[in-house]
Automatic annotation (TrEMBL):
Residues 1-19 form the signal peptide. It comes from Elysia crispata (lettuce slug). Residues 31-202, 217-389 form the VWFA domain. PROSITE patterns: VWFA. It holds the Pfam family VWA. This is VWFA domain-containing protein. Keywords: Signal. The keyword DNA repair does not apply. GO terms for cellular component: extracellular space. The lineage of its organism: Eukaryota, Metazoa, Spiralia, Lophotrochozoa, Mollusca. It comes from the Eukaryota.
Length: 401
């Protein structure tokens, strides 16, 4: 069954959403079960704050109902009591998570997996026609590896997709790799407070998994002219990098490229050579501040060339250009023409203006689609628009698919 999970940082996409609004989709049908390690591998403070906040934030992306999304929850250790292994409504889930105990004891993961296995059965509210997800938050180890592997094999036969999230310096284990359904289903954070940093990627991975036919190409244009300070250019690169980290990049589904523009230009990183986000992250680090005039029209020339067949453009992919700019243009007429040419190719362009002196009227003269224009007063505030930007792009991907 195809699960239509059109996901963004703060939730599921259902067309346009106001800034800060959580978007949910009526198309989603799934049974999701959380397993949380409450053994001695976790600190009490983490189980009272960071872990509950992550689970509640993640589940805030879904519409709870018997027909749509059902959620189960269980905390495991050698001291756990089997008090909950059924699917819950939202209020039950919140109350259970808020009362998450610190129990200590050994990490009896096999016991938690047995509870999850039972929960996916019809008797406990599971559905045969709904995709099953198990999300594990773990210290990376189990007290009985053999029993754990036996339970994992049983869940695999039932086509339960398992995401394993390791928390803590000791969680980077070989065992954690064997728990996840595949290497790409494994996540790791050094501290529990960093769980929020993987939320978007976890959601997007579900989207990629069940919409494997969806393809998109994203090309960044970064203003490296004298209109942007050296410090702000670093902030712009960091924002672009964080945006890349919000998606699962592969050469087949989602690919990316980047170009820093000014009258003194960088080498183009085009789409057909850089599909993986690790490659793109390396490129962002190597790009340096240039100075010179803000030649956006040159950057758009490069984007047009990038979205050509010989440079790897795909007819089946939704195409995007994301411009992060000072809002100044050395040649407004040519910039406007190039944007028109990209629009004829069905390339969607997002424009992010950075700085207190941006003349938004001049930006709108280029005729960007209004929903795709963003403005921040300073580069450090770019992170404040990332959620809405990702949400809008995912909505565009859905409409194009």
């Amino acid at each position: 069954m195809i699960l239509c999970l059109t996901l963004a940082l703060h939730g599921l996409l259902a067309g346009s959403c106001a800034a800060g609004e959580t978007c949910k989709s009526d198309d989603v049908t799934a049974d999701i079960f959380f397993l949380v390690d409450v053994s001695f591998y976790f600190r009490k403070s983490d189980l009272k704050t960071h872990v509950p906040n992550f689970v509640k934030s993640f589940m805030g992306s879904f519409i709870f109902s018997l027909e749509k999304v059902r959620v189960g929850f269980y905390s495991y250790s050698s001291s756990s009591i089997d008090d909950l292994h059924r699917f819950l409504d939202r209020q039950d889930l919140v109350e259970k998570i808020d009362s998450l105990p610190y129990i200590g004891g050994d990490p009896t993961l096999h016991k938690g997996l047995q509870i999850a296995d039972a929960s996916f059965k019809y008797l406990w509210g599971g559905r045969e026609d709904a995709p099953n997800f198990l999300i594990l938050i773990s210290g990376g180890r189990s007290s009985h590896p053999r029993k754990t592997q036996e339970m994992l094999a049983r869940l695999s036969k039932k086509r339960v997709t398992i995401y394993a999230i390791g928390v803590g310096a000791s969680a980077h284990t070989k065992e954690l790799k064997t728990i996840a359904s595949s290497p790409s289903h494994k996540f790791y954070v050094e501290k529990a407070k960093d769980l929020s940093s993987i939320k978007s990627k976890l959601l997007m991975h579900m989207y990629e998994t069940y919409n494997a036919s969806v393809q998109s190409d994203v090309f960044f244009l970064l203003d490296a002219s004298y209109m942007v300070s050296r410090f702000d250019f670093i902030e712009i690169k960091n924002f672009a990098k964080s945006f890349v980290d919000s998606f699962i990049y592969t050469p087949y589904n989602l690919r990316g490229g980047v170009f820093a523009y000014s009258e003194r230009t960088h080498t183009v990183v085009n789409l057909k050579h850089y599909g993986y986000h690790l490659d793109l992250n390396f490129i962002f680090k190597t790009f340096r501040y240039i100075g010179g005039l803000p030649t956006l029209h040159t950057g758009l020339d490069v984007a047009k060339w990038t979205f050509s067949r010989q440079e790897g453009d795909r007819k089946t992919a939704a195409n995007f250009v994301i411009i992060i700019s000072s809002g100044n243009f050395a040649n407004l007429r040519r910039s406007k023409k190039n944007l028109g040419d990209l629009s004829k190719k069905a390339v969607r362009t997002y424009f992010i203006a950075v700085g207190p002196d941006v003349i938004m009227y001049r930006v709108r003269l280029i005729r960007f689609y209004l929903r795709r224009i963003f403005h921040v007063q300073k580069a450090q505030a770019l992170s404040s628009i990332k959620d809405e930007l990702v949400r809008n792009i995912c909505a565009d991907i859905k409409r194009a698919s």
